[in-house]
C-alpha cells in the first residue's frame, strides 16, 4: 500500500461509478486526496472539444456543495475522515495543481473517453506518477453524471444511481430544483439550435 493517492473529477452529481473510482484508489493508499475540478467559475473550460462539460447545467453544484456531498458519501462508505481530504484540483490550469496536491502522490485515473485521455497526458506532462486503474470503452462506462442530472430533470427514478447520502443531501437541500431548472434550460436551448 502506498502512502498518498489522488483522484480527480467534477462529481456533478456524485454517483456510484464515481464511488467505485474513489474507493478503488482508496484501497491502494493510506491517505487519499479527492480533487474537485472546475472548483469555481473562473477555473472551468475543458480543453477537449466538448462545450457541454463547461456549461452551467453541467456544473450545477458549487465547490462547497460537492465537498459536502462527497464527505457524506465517504462517511456512508465508512472511510475514516483522517484517511481522505477534499481539495480543489485546477486541471484547466495544470501549473497550479502542485499548489493544492502533493507532487509525490500517485495520481489514480480511470480512462474511458477523450477528456480522460487528455487529463492523463496533462498529469504525465507534469511528471506526476499516474496509475491507470482501468481502461473502459465509453459505451461500457456505466452511469454518468449527465445521465443522473437528466433523470432528475425529467422526474425519472435516479436514487439507485447515487449513494443514499447523495440522494438525501440533494433532496433535503432542494438542490434537485436547481439541477432541474438548469437542465431544462439546457434542453430548451439545444432545441432552439
UniProtKB/TrEMBL annotation:
GO molecular function: nucleotidyltransferase activity
Protein name in UniProt: Nicotinate-nucleotide adenylyltransferase
Keywords, comma-separated and alphabetical: Nucleotidyltransferase, Transferase
PANTHER family according to UniProt: BIFUNCTIONAL NMN ADENYLYLTRANSFERASE_NUDIX HYDROLASE, PHOSPHOPANTETHEINE ADENYLYLTRANSFERASE
UniProt superkingdom: Bacteria
Location of the Cytidyltransferase-like domain: 7-149
